[in-house]
């Protein structure tokens, strides 16, 4: 469940980084940060999907629809 929830977040972060890199005039530090997000989270998406497949679950192929509410995430309750 955790991987299935995190993959769309990672994909959205990669997409935002790519959109930012496509713009002109972005400060070098911001470009470096965006590229770091892409470089780190792309492989993490692949690893989480591989784990899902190893567990007999479907890999996540779309970006999802945004972060769920706390009620929807109920399984992550630490209280």
Task: Give descriptors for this structure.
single chain, 79 residues, mainly alpha
Give the radius of gyration.
Answer: 15 Å
Q: Give the SSE string.
A: HH
State the separation between the terminal residues, measured CA to CA.
18 Å
Outline the biggest β-sheet.
none
Q: Give the low-pLDDT segments.
A: 67-73
The computed structural class is mainly alpha
**Residue fraction in strands:** under 5%
Number of strands: 0
Tertiary shape: elongated
The average pLDDT is 85
* Separate helix tally: 2
Helicity level? 55-70%
Structure characterization notes:
There is one protein chain. The chain has 79 residues and is mainly alpha-helical. It has a domain at 1-16 and 28-54. 59% of the residues lie in helices and 0% in strands. It contains two helices and no strands. The protein has helices spanning 2-21, 28-54. Helix 1 runs antiparallel to helix 2 (28-54). The longest helix has 27 residues, at 28-54. The radius of gyration is 15 Å and the shape is elongated. The model is unreliable at 67-73 (pLDDT under 50).
Question: How would the blueprint of this fold be written?
Answer:
Layout lengths: L1 H20 L6 H27 L25
Helix pairs in contact: 1-2
Q: Brief overview, please?
A:
59% of the residues lie in helices and 0% in strands.
């Amino acid at each position: 469940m955790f991987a299935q929830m995190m993959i769309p977040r990672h994909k959205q972060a990669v997409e935002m980084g790519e959109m930012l890199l496509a713009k002109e005039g972005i400060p070098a530090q911001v470009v470096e940060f965006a590229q770091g997000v892409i470089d780190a989270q792309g492989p993490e998406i692949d690893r989480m999907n591989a784990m899902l497949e190893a567990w007999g679950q479907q890999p996540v192929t779309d970006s999802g629809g945004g972060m769920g509410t706390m009620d929807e995430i109920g399984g992550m309750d630490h209280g």
